[in-house]
TrEMBL record:
<dbReference type="InterPro" id="IPR036291">
    <property type="entry name" value="NAD(P)-bd_dom_sf"/>
</dbReference>
<dbReference type="InterPro" id="IPR002347">
    <property type="entry name" value="SDR_fam"/>
</dbReference>
<dbReference type="Pfam" id="PF13561">
    <property type="entry name" value="adh_short_C2"/>
</dbReference>
<protein>
    <submittedName>
        <fullName>Uncharacterized protein</fullName>
    </submittedName>
</protein>
<dbReference type="GO" id="GO:0016614">
    <property type="term" value="F:oxidoreductase activity, acting on CH-OH group of donors"/>
</dbReference>
<keyword id="KW-0560">Oxidoreductase</keyword>
<comment type="similarity">
    <text>Belongs to the short-chain dehydrogenases/reductases (SDR) family.</text>
</comment>
């Protein structure tokens, strides 16, 4: 229970990678402030709450709803968590949106939405985290293996995740004196409902064939890495950790 007494805020924390990260951090003893965006995610929140309460009855868990594409909404989330928990030790940002299309078919609205969710929300989550996180804190943003690949059709996805690497490097230097580590984790194509809608069956097989053991990345491959960065891996900062079974060389 190395995270006993620590408070973790997970943006996008009730399903898929966010929920698995919540379970990992709960197992290590952290109290959890879990955010979701869509009304449809409310049932995921309820299901996760039941699971966590059953397994860890002494843990404090609270849920927050919000579209995090404005600085005001992000800061409101942080203020609500501070009010409820008194402090924030760990911030994980899993917020993301994918689009697979040739650039010639991407509209201005689609571009704006991709950058609002993948870049702007990530930037303002880092800003509020930098302002409010406790000394010795941990900040982790989820990016993508595609930052280490040359590939078409994901231009707006990889392109809108790419700035997060630079935001992270800058914030890492700004928070060094307070011993706050700031990192990115870059999963390979991951077996969640986020991945499938834009992929043909042939593309799924291609993605699998590029991973160790001919499979996709699982959330269970990534959440322990997040836990490690929050515990024994505290000396790692300013980095992007690629975890994709050899899908990319970076
Ligand atoms: N699955 C993959 O193949 C893969 C591979 C590499 C990296 N990633 C990255 O891993 C992260 C988690 O993905 P996942 O596979 O676990 O799928 P996911 O659960 O769908 O994660 C995306 C999260 O972003 C949230 N979100 C979307 N729009 C938002 C907004 N406007 N404001 C606030 N939150 C918003 C979603 O919340 P709601 O659902 O409540 O709207 C959801 O929790 C994402 O950042 C993704 O880019 C995924």
């Amino acid at each position: 229970m190395v995270l006993n007494g620590k408070v973790a805020l997970i943006a996008g924390g009730v399903k898929n990678l966010g929920a698995e990260s919540a379970r990992e951090l709960a197992e290590a003893g952290a109290d959890l402030a879990l955010h979701y965006n869509s009304a449809s995610s409310k049932s995921n929140a309820a299901e996760l709450e039941t699971q966590l309460k059953q397994k860890y009855p002494n843990l404090k868990v609270a849920f927050y709803q919000g579209d995090l594409t404005t600085a005001g909404a992000v800061e409101k989330l942080f203020q609500s968590v501070l009010k409820d928990f008194g402090k924030i030790d760990i911030v994980i940002n899993t917020v993301g949106k994918v689009l697979k299309k040739p650039i010639t078919e991407i509209s201005e609205e689609e571009y704006d939405s991709m950058f609002a969710i993948n870049s702007k929300a990530a930037f303002f989550i880092l800003k509020s985290a930098a302002a409010h996180i406790a000394d010795d804190g941990k900040i982790i943003s989820i990016v993508t293996a595609l930052l280490g690949a040359f590939t078409g059709f994901y231009t707006s996805y990889a392109g809108s995740k790419a700035p997060v690497e630079h935001f992270t490097r800058g914030v890492c230097k700004e928070l060094q004196a307070r011993r706050v580590s700031v990192n990115n984790v870059a999963p390979g194509p991951m077996d969640t409902p986020f991945f499938y809608p834009q992929e043909s069956p042939e593309a799924v097989e291609f993605h699998k064939s590029n991973g160790m053991g001919n499979r996709l990345t699982m959330v269970q491959d990534i959440a322990p890495l997040i836990r490690f960065l929050c515990t024994d891996g505290k000396w790692i900062t300013g980095q992007t950790i690629f975890a994709n079974g050899g899908y990319t060389t970076r």
